[in-house]
Each structure stands twice: as structure tokens, then as C-alpha cells.
């Protein structure tokens, strides 16, 4: 029997930021999107070199182009460090991953368009959209710290520097209570209407008993109900149509 595959399910954790924290989160999303737009241009320019790399290889390859360090003083795009001073490393890597995904999607769609794979003959070519409504992914320890499940500390931008701020969690679901579920990096969703964390979980579905049969009931229109018994291999071993005239007469009155 095959091992159950992992599935991803996402919960929404509602936050209750103060007016000051709303300004911080607004600035954080704003500067993150600016960084993503900047990186889309760099990655697209060098896609012939970057396109064949794995996700693990791509991030350091992009950083060699735009992130200055003591061991790497000469880079091709020094403007990034000047425009995004003290930009946290994990926010930068999240932005690189997002920008690479945008470029990869565009290149694939454009090649399909060039090859003639179009919904209509007069379809316009796809465009590289660097101005997307993305939100920052938060990495544990570097971008956020959980204090139980009623408070979370988030690294946010105040317009000049990156600071930690603690915000109340006012609503969440139950997936974090299941021991087999693994919490992944959440995203900070903030706009004028709402503020919450989008929290993905890797879930392991329960193993189905290999010898157990499944009974299904389908309520129909022409028949009152159809009952079927199916084995784990998909074989229907019993089927019954419930079609009682007396009940139908009552239903149609």
C-alpha cells in the first residue's frame, strides 16, 4: 500500500494591530514589494544563467549579483543595498524566491505563446508583471517569534529601520494542535481591509484501512437514493436503488 502523500492546508490567523502597528505593517509590505520589483528585473536580465538552477542554487547566485559582503565587495548591482539598507536577509531570500517564480512563470507562458499554444489566434503575448500584490513570507526566529498562540512578534519596517513588534492573535483554527501537522513559514497579509497571517501546514492524512469497505449514499432526483458499497480497490460489490413511490408522492405534493 502506498504511503499517504502530504497535503498543504492553510489557516488564517487574525491579528489585532494597534494604529502604530498598522503603519509598521504597511511600510513592511510596501518595502518588500519594492524589493520584489527590483529583483524581478535583475533575475529576468540574467535568466539565461539562472533559469537552469535549482531553488537551492538560485538564491546564492542572485545574491552574488546584488548583495555586497566583506568577502564579496564588488557586485554588479550595488544599488540594491543602497535602496534597501539593512534589509533582513530572510526577507531578501523570500523576495528572491518570489521574483524567480514570477520570471519563470512569464518565460514559460511566453514560450508557449511563441510556439502557437494560444486560446485565440489573436491573443496578445503575456507580460512580465513585476508589480504584483505579494506579501512577505516570515521565517521563524528571523522574521517572527511565537509567544504561545495568542501573541506573535514580527520584524517590521518603520520607514528607517527594522524593529520587532508584538501583536495579538485574535482568531485561529485548530490545525496547530494536531501533532502530525507541521507549520510552515506564514505570510503577513495586510491591507486597508484586514490584517492576518496566512499559515500553511503540512498535513499527513490518516491511513485508510486496506480491508475496509466504503458505503456511499447519493440522494437523487429520479430515485430517492442510491446506495453503493465499494472496496478499497474501487470495486463495487453492492448497489441498491431506493425508489419508494409512496415517499416520492409525498415529496412531490
Instruction: Tell me the major beta sheet.
Output: 7 strands, antiparallel
What oligomeric state best describes the polypeptide chains here?
Answer: single chain
What's the N-to-C terminus distance? Answer: 50 Å
Count of helical stretches: 6
Indicate the radius of gyration in whole angstroms: 26 Å
> Given the C-alpha coordinates, what overall shape results?
extended
What is the number of domains?
A: 2
Mean pLDDT value:
88
- The beta-strand count equals 10
N-to-C order of helices and strands? EHHHHHEEEEEEEEEH
Low-confidence blocks of residues: none
Helix content: 25-40%
| Helix and strand composition category | alpha+beta
* Beta-strand content estimate: 25-35%
In words, what does this structure look like?
With 253 residues, the chain is α+β, with helices and mostly antiparallel strands. The chain has two domains: 7-203, no CATH class; 214-252, no CATH class. The protein is 32% helix and 25% strand. It has six helices and ten strands. The strands form two sheets. Strands 1, 2, 3, 4, 5, 6 and 7 form a seven-stranded antiparallel β-sheet that branches. A three-stranded antiparallel β-sheet has the order 8-9-10, with no helix packed on it. α1 (19-45) crosses α5 and α3 crosses α5. The radius of gyration is 26 Å and the shape is extended. It starts with 6 loop residues before the first strand and ends with a helix. The mean pLDDT is 88.
Amino acid at each position: 500500500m502506498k504511503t499517504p502523500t502530504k497535503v498543504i492546508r492553510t489557516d488564517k490567523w487574525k491579528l489585532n494591530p494597534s494604529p502604530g502597528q498598522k503603519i509598521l505593517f504597511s511600510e513592511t509590505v510596501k518595502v518588500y514589494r519594492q524589493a520584489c520589483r527590483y529583483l524581478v528585473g535583475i533575475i529576468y536580465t540574467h535568466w539565461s544563467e539562472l533559469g537552469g538552477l535549482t531553488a537551492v542554487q538560485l538564491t546564492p547566485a542572485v545574491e552574488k549579483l546584488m548583495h555586497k559582503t566583506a568577502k564579496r565587495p564588488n557586485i554588479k548591482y550595488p544599488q540594491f543595498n543602497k535602496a534597501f539598507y539593512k534589509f533582513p536577509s530572510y526577507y531578501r531570500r523570500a523576495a528572491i524566491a518570489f521574483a524567480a517564480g514570477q520570471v519563470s512563470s512569464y518565460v514559460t507562458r511566453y514560450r508557449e505563446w511563441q510556439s502557437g499554444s494560444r486560446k485565440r489566434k489573436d491573443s496578445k503575448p503575456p507580460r512580465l508583471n513585476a508589480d504584483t500584490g505579494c506579501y512577505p513570507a516570515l521565517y521563524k526566529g528571523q522574521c517572527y517569534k511565537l509567544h504561545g498562540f495568542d501573541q506573535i512578534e514580527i520584524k517590521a519596517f518603520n520607514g528607517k529601520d527594522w524593529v520587532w513588534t508584538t501583536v495579538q492573535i485574535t482568531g485561529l483554527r485548530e490545525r496547530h494542535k494536531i501533532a502530525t501537522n507541521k507549520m510552515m513559514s506564514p505570510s503577513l497579509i495586510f491591507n486597508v481591509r484586514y490584517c492576518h497571517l496566512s499559515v500553511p501546514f503540512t498535513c499527513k492524512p490518516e491511513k485508510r484501512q486496506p480491508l475496509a469497505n466504503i458505503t456511499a449514499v447519493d440522494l437523487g432526483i429520479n430515485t430517492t437514493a442510491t446506495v453503493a458499497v465499494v472496496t478499497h480497490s474501487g470495486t463495487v460489490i453492492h448497489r441498491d436503488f431506493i425508489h419508494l413511490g409512496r415517499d416520492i408522492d409525498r415529496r412531490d405534493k
